[in-house]
Amino acid sequence: MNLMTLDGYQAKIEYDADTDQFRGEILGLSGGADFYGSTPDELRREFKKSLEVFLEVCKEQGIEPRKHFSGRFNLRISPELHKKLAMTAEVQGKSLNRLAQEALQKSVTT
Q1: Measuring CA to CA, which residue among 28, 17, 22, 20 is closest to residue 47?
Q2: Which stretches of the chain drop beneath a pLDDT of 50?
């Protein structure tokens, strides 16, 4: 995944064959905001414009611009994998939660 960062916000960048442009989608917002550009410079300019408009609308409507994350989520896995993970955690002297946190941390891109 290609990421672009601006003022602490990140956007996922993909090529859109329908428009023959690059499309950016700003991540972690409480609503949607995207932008398009044909070159990296144009993409950055449009990112800035899109973010400014989104933040202004949030301010006008009294909305928090960023999603809130509680630090908790449910994960569904097979009973067999659950058993293996629990046993691995026990062997390593960790909680299952700690084992999962460490594995997930290794997989993040930011």
Answers
A1: 22
A2: none
